[in-house]
Amino acid sequence: MPDFGRAKHEKYRIELPSSKPEYPALPWTCDATMINVYFEVRKEILLDWLPPEYGRTTPAYCRLFIVDNSQSPAGPFRDATLALGSRLSMMPAGFAAASITNNRTTLAAGIFERGYPNAFGAIEFEADRNHAHAIICDEKGPLLEVTLPLLQTIEPSRLAYDHVDAIKTSRGDNGIKTELLVTAPDFKVEHAAICKNARIEYPSERPESAWQILNNRNLVSAQLVRGTRTFAAAKPPG
Length: 238
Description:
mainly beta, 14 strands, Acetoacetate decarboxylase-like
C-alpha cells in the first residue's frame, strides 16, 4: 500500500486580499523559459506537507521549477514553484507546497483561479545557451539559489511534465474554505537542454520556510527549456 500524505488542507490556507483585483481573463499564452530541477527529500518531511489525496513516490522527491515569462497578457512575470512529487489516483502528479511570483497581477490570478502562485517575492533569472541561474526571494530575503553551469542540448521530445495541483483558499457562504484544484500540464517544449552538474544552494538560513524545510538531499536531474506556456485556471480533480 502506498504512503499517503498527512497534511490537512488548512496548512495551505492563506490570507485573501480584501477585494478581488482585476486581471486579464485566463488562460494566458506566455513565451517562457523554465529552469526545472528534480531532487530527493526526506520521506517523512514530504508526507508532512502532502495532502491525504496523494501518495508519495519512491524515492521521495520534489520538483522545483522557475519560469521567466517574457510575454503574457499580464506583461512579463516570473514565478517559482516547489512541488511535491506524488501520485493522484495512482497517476503522476505534483503538489505545490510553496510558490512565489514577482508580479501582482499574476499573484491575483494565481490566488483566485489556480491556488498558486500565492506569495509575492523577487526572482532573479538569467539563461543563455551555455548556462542558467536563478535566485528565489520572498519579502524577507533569499530562499534558494539554482545554478545550471553547463548545458547540453537535447531533443525536446525527451521531456514531458506532469500536472501540478494546489490548495485554493476562497470565501464561501460559511466563511473561508479550502479546496484542492488541479491544473493541466502547461508547457509545450520547443528547445531543451540538460545539465549534469546542477546545484541547489541556500544563501541564508530560513528554517521556517517550506523552501528550506523541503531541502535538497540529492539532485537527480535539471533542465532548461524554452517554449509556450499556457497559464490556465484550475479545476477540482476528477
